[in-house]
């Protein structure tokens, strides 16, 4: 890949990136959230087209019209969500991808060839198994085998070990090495530096859309890699507001306490392991970590949207583990969810209707069965003015608002009840600069007011600017806790990538 | 009662069941492939009516029943293409679109057919006995003394069974109904195929209408399908989206229809109403079973049925 | 914006219908004129229109409230029949001698109950088994119609019927009052009242708010602690109840007996009423009236011009098509502007 650039609107995802992968090599691509890794690989796999630059295979420029086209030309990607038809067998899923003429299914031939390929490349798969019978790790192998069968010689994997058990991860790593040794090229994105050090022949580090270095495991160590991933140039350091002195607010009693909390994630795999945390009144605890290490599950467990399988959660001293979400909200917990339009706001309804989502059943908004339009209007207006939500009027539908204004509205609503605990997940994602500042200001105000805040964010700068302490989550465990003031981003980066022992 | 239920009587009922079930079977096969592709078409009743009208009308005009059948096919395809445009092309609400099609088809057919109500078509699909096979006791009378369209419907059952389960194209069909994203990732043109199957399904439903107006109930009358289109929709579920079971279901319905008539003329008790209810109740049962996680794999609906698909939905 | 799209769909449909008429050798202006005059130009016509508006409105309101929650109740036809059955049964066998001021409210109650129970079945199957309410409610329509057929031809058969299928006439105490000498009956008032009550309920009560949220974004509703399963059941029951009331009012207001073909598809037309009325109670009132006018107009030109009354459903279907298409385009435009 040469001089690849890609932007999405105002965001520059990839900036003049040069990336090379050789035959028989495993090349790892590392970087923090938002560095541009997924975008780059998506371009490689044919999902996106670059704004400028070109892709070459064996020196010849290639252009992909679709991901399937990319596979035909030799590059295949294994996505985080597997593209398999569940009731079909492995062989049938492969046949689906064959672009052959002919009426006949010829499953038996495909099964034979798959078995042969499976042995040759060491990718153990039973071609007659139905997908729904297979584990996640096995399904991943199916995806890999299918790509090889369909002619891919360059395999791209996006965070492949994210949803695997440790044993499956080991198995995958061995498989990938084996494939590379057969002469193929393997590129994979990861943030797990020990895995990267173990399996990669070359490592490239992407930061803020640019390749900052390319090295080999011999020439580097995890510390250096982490530093390269999150390190800040001097010029960058000056800009971010971590330099503003925090008001030294002495934190009060513990509002949120987690002890030994464990929980399962989406596919039934453990997402949180024995997490211990405390957030005090007047304090903001930032949770740092690469996406997919348990942050979402942490927020969901605290707010009652996910079952915890172990441990205790106390809010203001009261046990609140596995209580219904509405009850936890009533206990004074505000939640700013990761995906505002999916969980927190109703796009098709207007500002008033969204504003009352939490407290519509209580006076003064409601008396008996009837809602009081006057009270609702007054309430909504107050929220709009207090938080400077720019909208044509109370009657405007929320999906017509900009991301920033939507988030401000959500914040306004959640903070209206003077919450004791605020759980904010990626609060400024997809939000413009002005709104971001407003949101930060609002969170700071709450902190001064004495609320406890659990701030989960992919943006390290944001965490450093707003938090009093920062905990780092990796693989569902708290790797370390450090004060934000004067924190070294590199050290955080190290913890984020699994270096260093977890605090028990 | 026992003196009526002679073997001869039963066999004649079964034969009538096949004849009566043919129209429903065509429509059912049409809806089956449409739903397998992931699209719900509730407009089958309206499409059948248009097919019946087109068939009768074209036959009256041309003097040839086969011409009538061909025109019915085209009419059905044309009607269904509206549904395809709205639901696949524009991703509109499939339920409302289908209902609009039924109401529209009912109205249009009544309007266009006003001049030929009751006119008997010059040629219809008569019973054709297949030599040798027709002489087999029992089975011969039931299956091999039917009209050309009935034979065609049986052939289609076998064809679709083979197509869906044994060909590449059938694999693709099942894929776009189960997990369109996966099919798309493998380079399958989901939208184009879905539209194709909707239109093909409509063509078959139109042919079903012709099986009525040029077969069992010759001529055109307003609303002559009398809800058979809805029965066909129910049958698809009853058949668990399997062509062979669809044939069984269609003939069961046909049997109820044929048997009821014969029983009534023989003066038997009227509680045939409850008998008539059974297919619908049974369909509900099958539906519940097909939705429950535990039994879904055996009976299940195509997982993406009724939901529009866009590539942006992919991660 | 939505009103604009609705109005435009209506006009476009008239236009396209006009073309079809023209190609079929008729003068569209003459036909439309005759329809309009027939439906709204004479007092008789207006009365007939109002008569047909009643069941369309009641059933349409029922369907609309369910659709608001994305509960696709296709079973209004069956729920209508059960309302009629319950009301008839009550009047003929349970309290046949009751005076009017007892009979009518009791029949209303019976109609609501019959429809509610029938609507509850698909609701329960959905809430507990996840079974598609589209199919279950549709299937139950046929069961309902067959049940009424059974009653009409069997145990409730009118001994003095002379072969005309139907139950004995309801006691006159149960006959809904007519407006003057017209056929317009109290049912219309029920419909208008129901529209008003529904509007108040949806706009001004907590319950209405919850329904709206659950229909728009079930995840956010769950997140806010709203009781989804319970609301599904309640809404399906309400939806069925309104359709049942439509059935009761047809029986008590028009035929005065339970008979075959009590409903020429009002339950299905109700879906159009709900959809074209944008799921709004007052929209339903307007559209029910318009659709009734279309139907009556169609009947009229059948008599005066010899044209099939089927023009009405043709136009109805066409309006719906344009509306569906127009809806998508407006939605698409909004996404493009934002995205």
Could you characterize what this model shows?
The complex is a heterotrimer of chains A (504), B (315) and C (339). Helix content of chain A is 35%, strand content 24%. Chain A is of the alpha/beta class and 504 residues long. In chain A, strand 21 (469-474) and strand 22 (477-483) form a beta hairpin. The longest helix of chain A has 17 residues, at 433-449. The model of chain A is unreliable at 233-245 (pLDDT under 50). Chain B has a single domain (7-313), classed as Orthogonal Bundle (ABC transporter involved in vitamin B12 uptake, BtuC), CATH 1.10.3470. In chain B, 70% of the residues lie in helices and 2% in strands. Chain B has helices spanning 7-36, 44-62, 65-89, 94-112, 139-143, 148-166, 168-178, 180-185, 190-216, 228-238, 243-265, 272-291, 293-299; strands spanning 127-129, 145-147. Chain B has a two-stranded antiparallel sheet with strand order 1-2. The model of chain C is unreliable at 334-339 (pLDDT under 50). Chain C has 339 residues and is an all-alpha fold. Chain C has a single domain, classed as ABC transporter involved in vitamin B12 uptake, BtuC, CATH 1.10.3470. The relative contact order of chain C is 0.20. The chains are: A alpha/beta (504), B mainly alpha (315), C mainly alpha (339). Chains B and C meet through helix 4, helix 10 and helix 12 of B and helix 6, helix 11 and helix 13 of C.
How is this fold's topology laid out?
The complex is a heterotrimer of chains A (504), B (315) and C (339).
Chain A: E1 2-8, E2 11-17, E3 26-30, H1 37-45, E4 52-57, E5 60-62, H2 67-73, E6 75-78, H3 90-97, H4 107-121, H5 136-149, E7 154-158, H6 166-181, E8 185-189, H7 193-199, E9 202-207, E10 210-215, H8 222-230, H9 234-239, E11 254-264, E12 270-280, E13 284-288, H10 295-303, E14 308-315, E15 318-319, H11 325-330, E16 333-336, H12 340-344, H13 351-355, E17 366-367, E18 370-371, H14 373-387, H15 403-416, E19 421-425, H16 433-449, E20 452-456, H17 460-466, E21 469-474, E22 477-483, H18 489-496
Parallel strand pairs in A: 3-8, 3-9, 6-7, 7-8, 13-20, 13-21, 16-19, 19-20
Antiparallel strand pairs in A: 1-2, 1-4, 4-5, 9-10, 11-12, 11-14, 14-15, 17-18, 21-22
Helix pairs in contact in A: 3-4, 4-5, 8-18, 14-15, 15-16
Chain B: H1 7-36, H2 44-62, H3 65-89, H4 94-112, E1 127-129, H5 139-143, E2 145-147, H6 148-166, H7 168-178, H8 180-185, H9 190-216, H10 228-238, H11 243-265, H12 272-291, H13 293-299
Antiparallel strand pairs in B: 1-2
Chain C: H1 2-23, H2 28-41, H3 43-68, H4 76-94, H5 100-129, H6 133-153, H7 186-204, H8 206-216, H9 218-223, H10 228-255, H11 266-276, H12 281-304, H13 311-338
């Amino acid at each position: 890949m040469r001089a690849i650039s890609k932007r999405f609107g105002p965001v520059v995802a990839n900036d003049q990136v040069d990336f090379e992968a050789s035959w028989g090599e495993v090349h790892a691509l590392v970087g923090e959230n938002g560095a541009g890794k997924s975008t780059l690989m998506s371009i490689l796999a044919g999902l996106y087209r670059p704004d400028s630059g070109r892709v070459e295979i064996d020196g010849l420029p290639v252009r992909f019209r679709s991901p399937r086209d990319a596979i035909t030309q030799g590059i295949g990607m294994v996505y985080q969500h597997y593209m398999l038809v569940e009731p079909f067998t492995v062989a049938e899923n492969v046949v689906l991808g064959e672009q052959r003429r002919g009426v006949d299914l010829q499953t038996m031939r495909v099964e034979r060839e798959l078995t042969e390929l499976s042995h040759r490349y060491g990718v153990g798969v039973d071609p007659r198994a139905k997908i729904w019978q297979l584990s996640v790790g096995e399904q991943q192998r199916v995806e890999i085998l299918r790509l090889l069968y369909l002619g891919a010689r360059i395999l791209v994997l996006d965070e492949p070990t994210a949803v695997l058990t440790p044993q499956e991860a080991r198995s995958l790593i061995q498989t990938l090495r084996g494939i590379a040794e057969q002469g193929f090229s393997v590129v994979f994105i990861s943030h797990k530096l020990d895995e990267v050090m173990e399996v990669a022949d070359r490592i490239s580090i992407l930061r803020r859309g640019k390749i900052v270095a390319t090295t080999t495991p011999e020439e580097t160590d995890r510390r250096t890699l982490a530093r390269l991933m999150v390190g800040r140039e001097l010029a960058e350091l000056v800009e971010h507001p971590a330099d503003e002195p925090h008001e030294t607010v002495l934190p009060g009693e513990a509002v949120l306490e987690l002890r030994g909390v464990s929980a399962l994630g989406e596919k039934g795999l453990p997402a949180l392991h024995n997490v211990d945390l405390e957030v005090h009144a007047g304090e903001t605890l930032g949770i740092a970590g690469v996406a997919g290490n348990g942050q979402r599950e942490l927020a969901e467990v605290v707010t009652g949207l996910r079952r915890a399988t172990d441990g205790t959660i106390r809010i203001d001293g009261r046990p609140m583990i596995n209580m219904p979400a509405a009850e936890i909200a009533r206990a004074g917990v505000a939640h700013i969810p990761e995906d505002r339009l999916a969980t927190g706001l109703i796009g098709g309804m207007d500002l008033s209707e969204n504003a009352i989502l939490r407290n519509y059943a209580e006076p003064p908004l409601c008396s008996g069965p009837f809602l009081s339009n006057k009270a609702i209007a007054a309430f909504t207006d107050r929220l709009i003015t207090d938080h400077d939500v720019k909208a044509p009027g109370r009657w405007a539908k929320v999906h017509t608002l900009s991301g920033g204004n939507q988030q401000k509205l959500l914040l306004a609503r959640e903070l209206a009840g003077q919450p004791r605990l605020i759980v904010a997940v990626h609060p400024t994602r997809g939000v413009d600069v002005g709104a971001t500042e407003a949101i930060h200001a609002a969170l700071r105000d709450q902190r001064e007011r004495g609320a406890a805040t659990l701030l989960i964010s992919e943006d390290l700068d944001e965490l450093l600017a707003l938090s009093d302490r920062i905990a780092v989550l990796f693989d569902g465990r708290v790797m370390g806790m450090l004060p934000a003031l004067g924190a070294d981003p590199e050290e955080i980066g190290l913890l984020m990538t699994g270096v260093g022992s977890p605090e028990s | 009662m026992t003196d009526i239920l002679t073997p001869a009587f039963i066999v004649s009922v079964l034969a009538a069941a096949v004849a009566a079930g043919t129209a429903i079977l065509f429509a059912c096969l049409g809806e089956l492939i449409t739903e397998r592709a992931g699209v719900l078409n509730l407009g089958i009743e309206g499409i059948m009516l248009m097919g019946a009208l087109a068939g009768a009308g074209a036959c009256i005009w041309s003097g040839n029943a086969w011409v009538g059948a061909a025109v019915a096919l085209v009419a059905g395809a044309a009607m269904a293409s509206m549904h395809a445009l709205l639901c696949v092309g524009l991703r509109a609400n499939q339920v409302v679109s289908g209902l609009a099609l039924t109401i529209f088809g009912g109205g249009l057919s009544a309007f266009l057919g006003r001049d030929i109500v009751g006119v008997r078509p010059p040629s219809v699909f008569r019973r054709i006995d297949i030599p040798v096979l027709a002489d087999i006791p029992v089975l011969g009378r039931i299956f091999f003394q039917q009209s050309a369209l009935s034979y065609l419907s049986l052939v289609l059952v076998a064809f679709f069974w083979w197509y869906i389960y044994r060909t590449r194209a059938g694999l693709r069909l099942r894929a776009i109904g189960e997990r369109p994203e996966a099919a798309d990732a493998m380079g399958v043109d989901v939208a184009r195929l879905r539209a194709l199957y909707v239109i093909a399904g409509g063509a078959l439903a139109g042919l079903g209408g012709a099986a009525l107006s040029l077969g069992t109930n010759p001529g055109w009358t307003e609303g002559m399908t009398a809800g058979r289109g809805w029965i066909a929709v129910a049958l698809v579920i009853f058949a668990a989206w399997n062509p062979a079971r669809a044939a069984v279901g269609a003939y069961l319905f046909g049997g109820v229809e044929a048997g009821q008539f014969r029983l009534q003329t023989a003066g038997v008790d009227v509680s045939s109403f409850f008998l008539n209810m059974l297919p619908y109740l049974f369909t509900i049962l099958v539906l519940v079973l097909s939705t429950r996680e535990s039994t879904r794999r055996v009976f299940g609906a195509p997982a993406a049925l009724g939901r529009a698909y866009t590539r942006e939905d992919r991660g | 914006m939505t009103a604009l799209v609705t109005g435009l769909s209506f006009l476009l449909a008239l236009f396209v219908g006009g073309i079809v008429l023209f190609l079929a050798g008729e003068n569209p202006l003459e036909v439309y004129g005759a329809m309009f005059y027939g439906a709204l130009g004479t007092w008789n016509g207006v009365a007939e229109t109002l008569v047909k508006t009643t069941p369309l409105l009641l059933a349409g309101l029922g369907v609309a409230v369910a659709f608001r929650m994305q509960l696709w109740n296709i079973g209004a036809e069956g729920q209508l029949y059960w309302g009629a059955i319950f009301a008839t049964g009550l009047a003929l066998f349970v309290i046949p001698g009751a005076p009017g001021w007892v009979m009518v409210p009791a029949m209303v109650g019976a109609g609501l109950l019959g429809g509610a129970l029938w609507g509850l079945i698909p609701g329960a199957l959905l809430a507990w088994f996840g079974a598609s309410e589209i199919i279950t409610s549709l299937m139950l329509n046929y069961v309902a119609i067959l049940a009424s057929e059974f009653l009409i031809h069997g145990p409730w058969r009118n001994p003095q019927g002379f072969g005309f299928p139907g139950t004995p006439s309801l006691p006159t105490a149960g006959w809904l009052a007519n407006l003057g000498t017209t056929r317009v009956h109290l049912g219309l008032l029920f419909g208008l009242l129901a529209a008003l009550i529904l509007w108040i309920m949806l706009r001004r009560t907590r319950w209405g708010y919850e329904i709206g949220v659950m229909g728009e974004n079930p995840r956010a509703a769950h997140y806010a602690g709203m009781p989804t399963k319970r609301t599904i059941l309640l809404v399906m029951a309400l939806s069925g109840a309104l359709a049942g009331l439509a059935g009761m009012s047809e029986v008590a207001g028009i035929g005065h007996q339970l008979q075959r073909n009590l409903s020429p598809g009002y339950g299905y037309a109700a879906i159009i009423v709900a959809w074209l009325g944008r799921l709004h109670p007052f929209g339903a009132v307007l559209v029910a009236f318009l659709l009734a006018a279309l139907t009556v107009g169609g009947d009229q030109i059948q008599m005066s011009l010899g044209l099939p009354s089927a023009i009405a459903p043709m136009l109805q279907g066409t309006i719906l098509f344009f509306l569906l298409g127009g809806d998508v385009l407006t939605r698409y435009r909004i996404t493009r502007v934002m995205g």
